[in-house]
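Support reply, case 0932

Customer input (verbatim):
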Amino acid sequence: MSRGGVEPLAPERRRHTIKRLMQFLGRYKWGFAVALLLSIGSNLFALIGPELSGQAIDVIEAGAGGVGVDMERVISICLKMLAFYAASSVLGYILATWMLYLSKRISVRLREEVFDRLLSLPVSYYDKHAIGDIISKISYDIDTLNTGLSNDLVAIFSSVITVGGSLIQMIRISPKLVLIFAVTVPMSMVMTKKITGLTRPMFRKRSKKLGELNAMSEELITGQKTLKAYHQEENTIARFDVMNKVAVDAYYEAEYYGAMIGPCVNFMNNLSMTLVSVLGALM
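Our regenerated output:
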């Protein structure tokens, strides 16, 4: 990420950075394997619920013609649904707790290694890089990675498993209705890719402005006596207010437009469900 006037990473450096990050995360591969198993279990149990719900509806519909509803069987199916949903919730809770623990360990280890690396760097490195930029890498970037591991990675696991399981269920129940998703899913992907392309420079700008603000804050704190000696308090506060507003605006802009991805994808999902319901009723 660019900060303090530093240009964005070139594609080669970006790939090299991602490769090194993957090698670092590879130390915790067994922890991620446990998380993957928990995610598979939680989502599969959740997918069994709608299947049982359909069975219960079929039993009720079969008894609606005057034969009488087999309530014992309906209750049995509902109890199974309750058990599967409860198991899914428990596994989901264990998964969230496990990922928080795992991401915390990774963040602590990463901060320690970054700090040890900073101690071994020559003085020339600190002459070429703003202190605020370095502080931002230790705090903001690692916090971002921590958030991604504890929240986003779980969401990715869940989404992939849910989509795959739902696709298998739909093909098994009604292959014709799957054609609807053959249209709406690519539309969602194109929409997400376009929004991501628009917001990526905004997040890059947000990181840059945050680094500049941190650098200025560090400079003002260390040079506080000098500022007072030359009576520059008001000018410095004015400069800081301007830079702080720019950083806040960059942060708001990135978060505002980045938050559009979720509602857009939900809209496409709701559209898909509406089309499935309408066409399924007509069929």
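We compared this against your earlier run and they match. Two observations from our side: The mean pLDDT is 81. Residues 42 and 88 are 4 Å apart (CA to CA). Please reopen the case if you see a mismatch on your end.
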